[in-house]
Amino acid sequence: MDGQQPSISPTDLYARLGTAAAPLVIDVRRTPAFEAADSLIASAFYRSPDDVYYASDGHCTHEKTLLCDGLVMGGVIECPKHNGRFDYTSGKALGAPVLVDVRTYPAKVIDGTVYIEVG
Amino acid sequence: MPESAGTAAAIVIAGAGECGTRAAFALREQGWDGPVILAGAEPSPPYERPPLSKTGELKPICDPAALREADITFLPGAEAARLDTAAHVLELADGRRLPYRSLLLATGARARRLPFGGAPVHVLRTHADSVALRGRLAPGRRVAVIGGGFIGLELASSAAALGCAVTVIELGPRLMGRAVPARVAAVMAQRHVAAGVDIRCGTGVTGLAQTASGVTITLAEGGTVEADVVVAGVGAAPETSLAEAAGIEVADGIVVDARFATSAPDVFAAGDCCRYPHPLYDDRPLRLESWRAAQEHGTAAARAMLGGTEPYAGVPWFWTDQHDYTLQVAGLADTASREVVRVRLDGTEIWFGLADGGRLVAAAAAGPGNSVARDIKLAEMLIARRAAPDPAALADPGVALKSVLRSPVAG
User: Fold this and answer.
1) Rounded to a whole number, what is the distance in Å from the CA of B318 to chain A's nearest CA?
2) Other C-beta atoms lying within 10 Å of the C-beta of residue B308
3) Rounded to an integer, what distance in angstroms lies between the CA atom of residue B197 and that of residue B180?
4) B377 interaction partners in chain A (CB closer than 8 Å)
5) B127 — phi, psi (to 5°)?
6) Confidence (pLDDT) at A5
7) How many C-beta neighbours within 10 Å does residue B118 have?
8) pLDDT per residue as tens digits for the range A13-52
9) Which are the contacts of B23, defined by CB distance < 8 A and separation ≥ 6?
10) From A13-27, A46-60, B39-53, B256-270, the region with the lowest mean pLDDT
11) Chain centre distance of CA B138
12) A71 with B374: Cβ contact below 8 A
């Protein structure tokens, strides 16, 4: 924001995912796919009620549904398709139909830019 | 497998669909360490039915290893044939006898069929049905779907995507008349028309005839529809014959209480096959054909089999995917006496149904992708809390539905 350069370089372990202006008023949003392990990974970016940022793989582990269309309540994201729930702070699957945890990534916001660690 | 696979210490589950399989795992999750026998009539390991009408893929409910790890004895091809409730023994069609401590009937439903023959008609319930039908869908094939409910419309959508020329013939005045409000069904109807599906509501069928070039369907109002493939999506009938023969109370579904206990001691029934009283809707006896209900019933029945007494009060919820749209419904639309519609900024309509006294009892919407999911989920939470939200707030797209969660509870 304000034309400032982020204080870390886009070439380090973090993928730059755009400004945080929108995330500041939401609880989950879709972020652009990023490259990791030779594949493009859609991701979801979260702002918790206590103002901490988190990121996870964008797709539910049950079927390939984008989590960012789901509802966040507290620290839990619920898949919009079949109601599988994950603790988005740890990625833990919270019961059927989701049996596999979702991968999470460290996330941070520096000078209004969202970064997700992909290394 | 010895002739007597079970012991009186076993919990036996008849039916390895969504409900039965979930119940088996839930027994373990809730600490039951005795034998669990999951007897499925079909040859395949437990699989999910929703994909059958969409992609057609065989999607297992769980990794087969997960059944072993949970020490669940899974019996494929184990069709339940007889039930002796006094002796506590379930007998399979091949003669095996399974003594039980508790028995869960999760026998599901079977596809209803048309009342007349004359030509081969596909139905869809099992993976075998799906394989038979998919083998006949190809670009240019004329497919007639009789019945404009969920299964019929999902198949219409799948067939259209495969390049078939699809006609849907529905007896009622509109699509999905049983469970979806008219204006939400209309959104989906438009989507079908845009995809080239010929939708004919208010149209009865009086007969089928095999011809040299396919099947001729005779319509009640006169006229015919010519097709290469005919599919009937005319509802499902609960699989109750085993219970009925055992003297268990049945009334279009195996009658259970709010903890899924049948009229026979230590026999429970859950999922599509049962009819249960719903505490959110004045204990109205409900029979649901829904993936999530099957799953939640399984979990709740497992709890009850282990002595739990809490009634099940999950909000009825279902979805259907047709073309690139998803429709979701929470609650029971036919209990509403007043409707409120929120038109979102993206043009999507969210339908809310209120009962006398202002309580929210249902919500429904259809839109591209999963775009309606969050709103319907919030509505579901309001329904569960018996909330009586301000209708003006529901209608106003500028009011976040999350903030409506603080609404007062109906008296």
Assistant:
1) 9
2) 15
3) 20
4) 70-71, 78, 80, 83
5) -60, -40
6) 39
7) 15
8) 445 455 544 444 456 766 655 555 444 566 788 888 887 8
9) B13, B104, B106, B270, B298, B299, B301, B302, B305
10) A13-27
11) 27
12) yes
